[in-house]
Amino acid sequence: MLDMARLRAAKENLPNVTFMPGDAQTHHFPAAAFTVAISRAGVMFFADPVAAFANIGRALEPGGRLAFVCHGNTTANPVFEALRDAGVTLDLAADTPGVPGFTDPGHVRRILTEAGFRSTAAIAFEVHSTITATAADAAKFLLDGNLRALVQKADDDTLNRTRAALETALRPFAATGAVTLPAAGWLHTATWIG
């Protein structure tokens, strides 16, 4: 991923961009070194989101801005509908790491405020999200990634049933070599008070 990002930055002639591996929850960023922190669906999986956002905040100068997107309402999402139809009990409690808690803008606002941010805002949006080439690949990708926390306690039978249900649910969205799903999201912004 980092190699691909470096290639794209070079192709776009962006010499002032640096790429490095790290966990934003614990990485030792230089203090007050940045004016903005941006994430595209990458902040939903922190083990301790308050600590993670506080760590990110300390890397921002006072008045620095945070902006990130995360998933929105799960009830109209064909992926979550397929999981429910397969009999997977969805733990959508706000304190569950992953997608569920971040679908509630009030919960996110509390996390950001506790971490030291102010002027929080959440704007709902809808997009079409492209996952991967086939319905089977997309089901595997989702179960191995974004949905892993929701199915990690499932027995093998439930997991196989879930994979099959997901693949069936995703098939109508697979066209022209990709699975494209309707998706709802939130754009969150906040200001670091320093």
From TrEMBL:
Domain Methyltransferase type: 1-68
Matching InterPro entries: Methyltransf_11, SAM-dependent_MTases_sf
Organism (species): Amycolatopsis taiwanensis
Lineage: Bacteria, Bacillati, Actinomycetota, Actinomycetes, Pseudonocardiales
A molecular function GO annotation: S-adenosylmethionine-dependent methyltransferase activity
Protein name per Swiss-Prot or TrEMBL: Methyltransferase type 11 domain-containing protein
Pfam family of the protein (one): Methyltransf_11
